[in-house]
Amino acid sequence: MSSPGGLFRPYQNLVKIQLLDREVEVPENNMVLRALQFLAIEGVAYGRFCWNEECQYCRIVYDTGEGTAKHTALACKMMVKEGIRIHEISAELKYCLRDLTLGKCGPATVIEGMSE
Description:
Helix content is 16%, strand content 22%. By secondary structure, the protein is α+β, with helices and mostly antiparallel strands. It has one domain (14-98): Roll (Ubiquitin-like (UB roll)). A five-stranded mixed beta sheet has the order 2-1-5-3-4. A hairpin with a 7-residue loop joins strand 3 (59-63) and strand 4 (71-74). The longest helix is centred in the N-terminal third of the chain and has 8 residues, at 32-39.
């Protein structure tokens, strides 16, 4: 299915994940940050992400399904998995994904203390 060039790791399928208040499909076999870039190519490309764990701008809070514990992770270091539910994203990610109009159905979903 994929002809990713150099941006995405090769993938055969799109997997469904929940991103704040929306269900989205992203390429399997990619880190969460790269999968989010699939949804907003230009937005994430211009973000202030280091892609190597230094900046912490890609912090997310997620769980793996109903009734499971929430965890904090860096989107640049976590592999995307079918069914994960991302509940909170950093201010930088929120800004980069602004064209997706996320989070309209509820309270603020930005992780506190992650904005400059």
